[in-house]
């Protein structure tokens, strides 16, 4: 990836720019992010051995739902994104909530060149399936984390079940997400994620599934159920 051709899909940026005003509405198109945020935070906090006082980078922070949650749990948080409108919403909400988060509009690869080995924890959640080159994002995350630090990733598995649930179900039948949110061809198999992590010099230490129950409309973490949404923990040796 060159500076002249950043690792971004302009259509994806426009999509989330258009929805930015609704980012903090828990009943909006971002309801799923609000619903799963406590699970994501618990997973990261446990995997990181606590967050208090740690410097954390949230890659693809959008409107700041995860970033603010990390800060509320004691982390010193930097959130980065390439979308202008979501970052404006994140800044406005930060002023309202009083939660301290630093936001920057910068590509993760550019930040890795600027601040290598600067963070105790790097999170990249629900972003990899929206960029042209997810391996480049993972490599940048690996450069940004300090030796011994943790990188937390989440994405969607490229399976028929994921297509049925995440696209047909969530986008078209249940209306949980806007139509066109996901492109099945960009879903990532765990083996692919693991290979990119190894190439980046990371050690993959754990994977767990994120499972939705349509009857109770609740989510839970489920080890071994990686066939739709899943989270991964990596460490930089």
TrEMBL record:
EC number: 2.1.1.222, 2.1.1.64
A Pfam family that the UniProt record links to this protein: Methyltransf_23
Domain of life: Bacteria
MF GO annotations: 2-polyprenyl-6-hydroxyphenol methylase activity; 3-demethylubiquinol 3-O-methyltransferase activity; polyprenyldihydroxybenzoate methyltransferase activity
Binding site for S-adenosyl-L-methionine: 40, 60, 81, 125
Record InterPro entries: SAM-dependent_MTases_sf, UbiG_MeTrfase
One GO-annotated biological process of the protein: methylation
UniProt key word Methyltransferase: yes
Catalytic reactions of this protein: a 3-(all-trans-polyprenyl)benzene-1,2-diol + S-adenosyl-L-methionine = a 2-methoxy-6-(all-trans-polyprenyl)phenol + S-adenosyl-L-homocysteine + H(+); a 3-demethylubiquinol + S-adenosyl-L-methionine = a ubiquinol + S-adenosyl-L-homocysteine + H(+)
CDD domains to which the protein is assigned, alphabetical: AdoMet_MTases
Pathway named in the protein's UniProt entry: Cofactor biosynthesis; ubiquinone biosynthesis
Alphabetical keyword list: Methyltransferase, S-adenosyl-L-methionine, Transferase, Ubiquinone biosynthesis
Described purpose of this protein according to its UniProt entry: O-methyltransferase that catalyzes the 2 O-methylation steps in the ubiquinone biosynthetic pathway.
NCBIfam families given in the database record: UbiG
PANTHER family: METHYLTRANSFERASE, UBIQUINONE BIOSYNTHESIS O-METHYLTRANSFERASE, MITOCHONDRIAL
Family: Belongs to the methyltransferase superfamily. UbiG/COQ3 family.
Identification of the protein by name: Ubiquinone biosynthesis O-methyltransferase
Originating organism: Caldichromatium japonicum
